[in-house]
Design goal:
With 483 residues, the chain is α+β, with helices and mostly antiparallel strands. Strand 14 and strand 15 form a beta hairpin. It binds flavin-adenine dinucleotide and FE2/S2 (inorganic) cluster (2 copies).
Length: 483
């Protein structure tokens, strides 16, 4: 079958056909510069402020799902087959304000108004999923939206009050769901898309096999999943990424399988997509999960991207290593699996050869005898990168520690297990003295760096204290660090 070069998607009420799209063209530039839809604002251009928030709807097994995303780091090429909804689409044909907008006006949720369209779009996405949110749900939905003038109290009051102004059932995205779904289905043709000029090329494989073949053929290509790292390479560092292979649309990489002993997920599963299963099967990770980035980035960013980027401060590797996760890599038709900790060799160096990609991740579920916890230490509670991240899983039988897996991020050039601390725990009784000894042993496990996030001394002290905190919490001591 021949390739297609056109990128086709719906923008508000219309179909867009773009004959050619450079790989690096962002949705924000397209909206503001090409379409003059200037309601979507540019604040930071790096996914932090949320001024550029729009909704992107995509069919998942035939079901249309909308998510709030950052247009500044979302590439246009990745929108093939999607429905993009901007703030201009919210008001009715007669110009009447949308219930979210009315609530914002009547609760004085805006001053200069620069952040307001982005906040409205995040609240719109929340209202569609949760029409009567709690304050905590509103705060979580707004983690990725910054307002410099209004203060969040009136915005939160507005968010909680939206249901007084209308119901999602009467919203036009709900009423038009059948028509939009049919229009998106009509755009699907199962063909590979190759678009953009030769020096700024975008490839959208037709399926997983086509991705494996395309990457084996172009091993120098930039793989782009959620683009929450790669987006910044383009907007902040002006790095060339051509040819870029986009993979976020591939359903095979979105598969999640839960068996009695493990969860296996495709590398393209986003943080938000995994969250319900985290809450159900790995509840010790639920609060930690909500501290990864902000909502828009969690809607876009993938677990595979967080592993493949090889960062020593990525939040998922420490907690997944502590659970004994394995990663499956694929090159062409060949696959191999390895423990996740073995994937990280050195700073910027992973056990992944050119043209090989992360296909899936297998996370064993802890047994009833295993106690697990996850900790993130950062300067801000929300939307911040970790200074130290820790995953701890300890199995105790008849009061004796039978296994211990302790993995830390931010302490070395890679996410790394604390081998000496683990050995200090093995065979020891479950008590405070054993954990104090393990915390002392941890001093030999790492030689952390000082940087603007934290000093080496702080990192070591906090890592040791997390081990102590783990024991106290698991032992039932009243530990409460947040309100
Ligand atoms: C505002 C903001 C806040 C953030 N906060 C956090 C945070 O709190 N914690 C945190 O850990 N991270 C954070 N990040 C970083 C980022 O969101 C995560 O690392 C995310 O998981 C990356 O996933 P992605 O799908 O967006 O990756 P992409 O940007 O698409 O790709 C990242 C890297 O992985 C490669 N890649 C992606 N998928 C595959 C694959 N399947 N096989 C091989 N290579 C692949 C790409 O080529 C690239 O090198 C933040 C980012 C932003 C913009
Ligand atoms: S412009 Fe700040 S998040 Fe996009
Ligand atoms: S109202 Fe001015 S930045 Fe929010």
């Amino acid at each position: 079958m021949t390739h297609r070069s056109e990128i086709r998607f719906l923008l508000n009420g219309r179909t867009v056909n773009l004959p050619t799209v450079p790989a690096t063209q962002t949705l924000l530039d397209f909206l503001r510069l090409d379409r003059r839809l200037t309601g979507t604002k540019e604040g930071c251009a790096e996914g932090d402020c949320g001024a550029c928030t729009v909704l992107v709807g995509r069919l998942h097994a035939g079901v249309l799902r909308y998510e709030a995303v950052n247009a500044c780091i979302r590439f246009v090429a990745s929108l093939d087959g999607c429905h993009v909804v901007t703030v201009e689409h919210l008001s009715g044909p007669d110009g009447a304000l949308h219930p979210v907008q009315r609530a914002m006006v009547e609760h004085h949720g805006a001053q200069c108004g620069f952040c307001t369209p982005g906040i409205v779009m995040s609240l719109y996405a929340l209202w569609m999923q949760t029409p009567e949110p709690t304050e905590t749900q509103v705060e979580t939905a707004l983690q990725g939206n910054l307002c410099r003038c209004t203060g969040y109290a009136p915005i939160i009051r507005a968010a909680v009050a939206v249901s007084q102004y209308g119901t999602p059932e009467a919203d036009h995205l709900t009423l038009e769901r059948g028509r939009i779904t049919a229009a998106l289905l009509a755009l699907q043709d199962s063909r590979r898309v190759e678009t953009g000029p030769e020096d700024n090329r975008a490839i959208l494989p037709a399926d997983l096999g086509d991705f494996a073949a395309a990457y084996a053929e172009h091993p120098q290509a930039t793989v782009i999943a959620g683009a929450t790292d790669v987006g910044l390479w383009v907007t902040k560092f002006l790095r060339p990424i051509s040819p870029a292979i986009f993979i976020a649309h591939l359903p095979e990489l979105k598969a999640i399988e839960v068996s009695p002993g493990a969860i296996t997920l495709g590398a393209g599963v986003s943080y938000s997509e995994l969250k319900p299963l985290i809450t159900q099967h790995l509840p010790h990770l639920a609060a930690y999960w909500d501290r990864i980035a902000g909502w828009q980035v969690r809607n876009m960013g993938t677990i595979g991207g967080n592993i493949a980027n090889g960062s020593p401060i990525g939040d998922t590797p420490p907690v997944l290593i502590a659970l004994g996760a394995e990663v499956t890599l694929r090159h062409g038709k060949a696959r191999r699996s390895l423990p996740l900790e073995a994937f990280f060799i050195d700073y910027g160096k992973q056990d992944r050869r050119p043209g090989e990609f992360v296909e899936s991740i297998r996370i064993p579920l802890p047994s009833a005898a295993t106690r697990s916890a996850a900790y993130k230490i950062s300067k801000r509670r929300d939307e911040d990168i970790s200074a130290v991240a820790a995953g701890i899983s300890v199995t105790v039988e008849a009061g004796i520690i039978r296994s211990a897996r302790i993995a830390l991020g931010g302490m070395a050039a890679t996410p790394k297990r604390a081998a000496a601390a683990e050995s200090a725990l093995l065979g020891q009784p479950w008590n405070e003295a054993s954990f104090a000894a393990a915390a002392r042993a941890m001093a030999g496990d790492f030689a952390p760096l000082s940087d603007w996030r934290a000093s080496a001394e702080y990192r070591m002290r906090v890592a040791q204290n997390l081990l102590r905190r783990f024991f106290l919490e698991q032992d039932g001591a009243p530990v409460r660090l947040s309100a």
